[in-house]
Amino acid sequence: MNRLESATARMRDHGLVALLVTTPANAYYLSRFPTGTCSRPVVVVLAENPVLVVPELEEARARDTSVVGDILTYSDRQYGRQRGLTHLHLALAVALEALKESGVSGPIGFESEGLSAEGFFALRSRITAQVVPTRGIVEEMRMVKDAGEMELIRAAAGLADYGIAAGIAACRPEYTRLEISIEAAAAMMRAGAARHPEHHVAAASPYAPPTRRALAAGDTVVCSTVCAVDGYHAEAERTVLIETASDDQRRLYEVMLRAASAARAAIRPGVPCLEVDRAARAVVAEAGYGPQFTHMTGHGLGIERHELPSLAQGDDTPLVPGMVMSVGPEIYVEGTGGFRHSDTVLVTGDGCEVLTLHPRHLEALTTRS
Question: Which of 56, 257, 279, 354 is packed most tightly, with the most Cβ within 10 A?
Fold first, then answer.
């Protein structure tokens, strides 16, 4: 059963005869049309006969990439404030006309997280059938990756490691965090162009605040990289000490390393996500820094940088082989610094495989002038 068939079966289990898929990540997952590089709305009409609705200017690319055979287009020639029409209005009008022509009768679902209030009112004004908000129909399918998805994530993880190395090389006095971020992102893009010229690569180093203050001895820098290959993400983070580390910084660093190790050790099939978070949190709390661990331990990675499931206290989803997680417990102590390593991790049949491999120990991550 392919993705479209599986999603249709799940949709019917929810008592729906059709589903309007408007979130870019879900539309890409079902259609393979690269929504991330399209600036206008794309809609997958999930029904007995699926339809992909794209902007007119994207028709040729849609026919080259989409696994949905029936492709309809909308033109933005009618777009404008005077008519009160947005691109979303235009896309929904085409999607609903396709449903009408196919004779669909019954409850029609829409993604509550993928439709604005404006979109909802546009939907209600154009259809008399019952419309039902949904959550998770496609997102839950995306939690477990297939072989093709894993190939892209492995490629992205290799580039994220490359960016970490470049960012760490720039972690020295007189550099700013913004300059470090630029170096890391540029390195990933150059490496992506060389290693994967047939794929679309996007890269960023998102967590370095764009301050103008130059680094100084004793500072901590959380060097972070996020890379996507054909829309599939991996991320890596390493905490770097500039030239020297105080006793407090060394202590916090070791607690963070033990917490991350405990989280990875807890990952295996069948374990609820919250137990992984609990394992990391127990280490930090025992060391006396529980209140300074304010973040979840990790989250799913894939088409989105943050997707289901979450390694958090409120998520009891059992881990399944093929899930890809970012694992990165953190400790932030005012006046001492932030301490966080994050790795991209694949759940395997008997544990986990770490895909981002840059060294983690303090000696390798203390810069020298």
Answer: 279
CA 55 – CA 84 distance, rounded (Å):
18
Asked if 164 and 30 sit in the same domain, the reply is no
User: What's the pLDDT tens digit per position in 192-231?
Assistant: 999 999 999 999 988 666 677 888 899 899 999 999 999 9
Nearest to 97 by CA among 77, 117, 70, 118: 70
Paired tokens of 97:
């006309």
Q: What is the CATH number of the domain that holds 47?
A: 3.40.350.10
Tell me how crowded residue 142 is: count the other CB atoms within 10 A of its CB.
21
238-258: pLDDT as tens digits: 999 999 999 999 999 999 999
In the DSSP assignment, the letter for residue 188 is H
My answer on whether 79 and 151 are in the same domain is no
Q: How big is the chain, counted in residues?
A: 369
Is residue 351 helix, strand or coil? coil
Report the C-alpha gap between 199 and 324 in whole angstroms: 20
Tell me if 300 sits within 8 A of 306, measured CB to CB: yes
Last residue of a domain, one of 108, 123, 141: 141
Rounded to whole angstroms, the Cα distance separating 254 from 150 reads 31
**Which DSSP string corresponds to 62-79?**
HHHH-S-SEEEEE-GGG-
Domain count across the chain: 2
In the chain, DSSP finds a helix count (H) and a strand count (E) of 9, 17
Alpha-carbon span 169 to 22, nearest angstrom: 41
